[in-house]
Amino acid sequence: MVELSARSDSLSGMTTGSTAPASVTEGIDASVTIKLSKLDELRGANAVANDRIAELEKQLIEEKQRDRTGEIARLRELLRDTFIVVRFAVANLPPETTKMWPSLALKSIVDKLPLMPDFNVDDQAFINELKQFRREIYEIDRIRAARDENDTRLKEVSDGIDLDLPPPASE
Predict the structure, then answer these.
(1) Are residues 150 and 80 in the same domain?
(2) Selected residue with higher pLDDT from 82 and 169
(3) Domain that holds residue 116
(4) Residue range 100-147, pLDDT digits in tens
């Protein structure tokens, strides 16, 4: 038999199963005596309940991810097609000849691409390409800003903060 003992300073008038506010229960020690076999039984029931909870949570996640209408597959295909267009634009529209590249949108792609369920090593290479391209945009924007002091593009988009690069040295 396992005995858990405790002391009570102010439990007068409370019945078994009653709940007291925290202010009343502070400093209260309680005593429970149960057989070891009952304790083991309770622990076993708790383990079974926890296993069942984990199983149900897994089923819930699987159900949320199920694509009954094919909508997720179509959206994934749309994203993959969009990446083809982005690759084409990056390859054919260098920042030296194209102003106002949407650098923050490229950062968003870099940040969210790893969340795709079918993310693979090719996608990681694509992320690396986009990061390098964003660095090039940043450098070209710095050169443009140096030529034109009224250019606000440098402060609005290419401040170096969103590139994981150190900010430009102050002059």
Answers:
(1) yes
(2) 82
(3) 71-163
(4) 889 899 999 999 999 888 888 999 999 999 999 999 999 998 888 888
**Residue 104: other Cβ atoms inside 10 A:** 12
**Rg, the chain, Cα only:** 31
pLDDT at position 30, please?
83
- Looking at the structure, tell me whether residues 58 and 87 fall in a common domain: no
Exposed / middle / buried, residue 22 (Cβ in 10 Å: 0-12, 13-18, 19+): exposed
- 38: which residues sit within 8 A by CB, 6+ positions away? none
- Tell me the three state secondary structure of residue 130: helix
Answer whether 28's CB lies under 8 Å from 18's CB. Answer: no
Nearest to 104 by CA among 158, 155, 167, 165: 158
- The answer, as to whether pTM is greater than 0.70, is no
Handedness of CA 45, 47, 53, 55 (dihedral sign): negative
Angle made by CA atoms 145, 94, 100, in degrees to the nearest 5: 45
Same domain, 84 and 52: no
Tokens of 120: 């693979």
